[in-house]
Amino acid sequence: GHEAFALHDTYGFPFELTEEIAASRNITVDRDGFGAAMEAQRERARAASRFLRDPNAEQRPWTKLTDGAHSEFLGYDSTQATGLSVRFWRESGEDVEVVLDRTPCYPESGGQVADQGFLEGPGVRAGLLLVYREGDHIVHRVSVAVGLIKDLIAIGAKGLVNATVDRAKRQATERHHTATHLLHAALRRVLGEHVHQAGSMVAPDRLRFDYSHFESPSPLHVTSVEQIVNDWIMGNQTVSWREMPIAEAKAQGAMALFGEKYGERVRMVTVDGVADAGIEPSRELCGGTHVKRTGDIGLFVITEETAVASGVRRIEALCGPAARTWLLDSQGTLLSILEILQTPQFRAIEAVGKLKDEIAQLRKQVNAASQVGMESQLVQLAQSATAEANGRWVVARIDTPSDTNTVRDAADKLRGAIGRGAAVLAIVNEEKFSFLALVSDDLVAEKKLRADELVRAVARITGGSGGGKPHLSLAGGRDMGKLDEALDHAREQLKKALS
Fold first, then answer.
1. Considering Cα of 382, then 387, then 392, then 398, what sign does the dihedral take?
2. Alpha helices, DSSP H, located in 316-461
3. Mean pLDDT of 363-371
4. Which of 66, 157, 199, 247 is exposed most, by the fewest CB atoms within 10 A?
């Protein structure tokens, strides 16, 4: 069980696939052990989450204010509620946390972010900072903007609190949440049934969906997934939900996150399929809020697909107005590029390809000319080399727009011109610099000098490092202010070795 959990948690390998492969070899997998490891991790996550919300929350007890049931969630049907009572309260720094008898405010859970909005009543108005679950409590952390904390508690005791959720942000969040269900189903259809959700984040402005898959999907696969979701949106299919026994939900094929704890009764969210497009219905166990019809999502666009861990991929996407804004921005970028290229859109790819080829050709010509000039410069340096009893040496600074590779390729000219000897060059390109050391083969064979040891010692003075072969080696420099000191050290080393 713990080994199966390590595969799932560390490498994103689906538990169901582990079971399937094990079964083909007559090996069983300990589902209870896997579940225990999953629950232990979940407890660690919950503890960390509580710590981030308020390090002192666990030490501060609730003050009971009124009797009766608490935390009845009304948010599936409404974004407003009036005549609410405060059941429990406690201070949280300069703010206050309250538990209400009923609330339309969605608590952060299942990847969906908490609602934004406010609580108010006679002479009091408090903005929602965070809504979260603590056990069976829905906790509202608020900052009182009008009135005082004691005023909020006073109207809470009288059942005079009104709660209002920011409707625009709730609707935007619902678009992105329903879209994650469609995205999950589309990924399974395009990439295979092994795909499972590995995490998600649903917010008003975007969605993030992590999923298990063993390789990067092709651009065609990503486009196909995006098209399926938009076909679903265009179909304007009904999104419905109802509570039922978990056995009934599983019998209907509802997707559930393995290792997640579900009670005897669960909430199944169903999105009707689109027969004309060959799209099957989506059924998932989910406690979040959703749009009423897929058409309410408006538009779906995938903005990024990346890897986050071995066997785990991530999709970032936008819905509705956020997606439209992204597309308009992309169109604006494209128009700007077309204006620079002075070409119509249908010839854009051809123009960019031609430009790329021209740049490559010019770069090749520049590099060739630069190398000829560099070879000439290095030969001149060799002519002014310092002669010692055991060979000649050169230490110099070269300010050049050429890259280090060009200088390295020209270094053989310097080696040939010096003959028996060595050189250390500081190659300075604007604010960047590096060191190149070369040593003739006979000095290397006699163990008098090694280029790799020499260049490391010089670069270390500037905080840099590097290495290479005994006869030719490169190192990067860091502190330009110590460049002269490093070159003086190189002179001392070469004079000492060759005198």
1. negative
2. 320-341, 348-383, 404-418, 441-445, 451-461
3. 79
4. 247
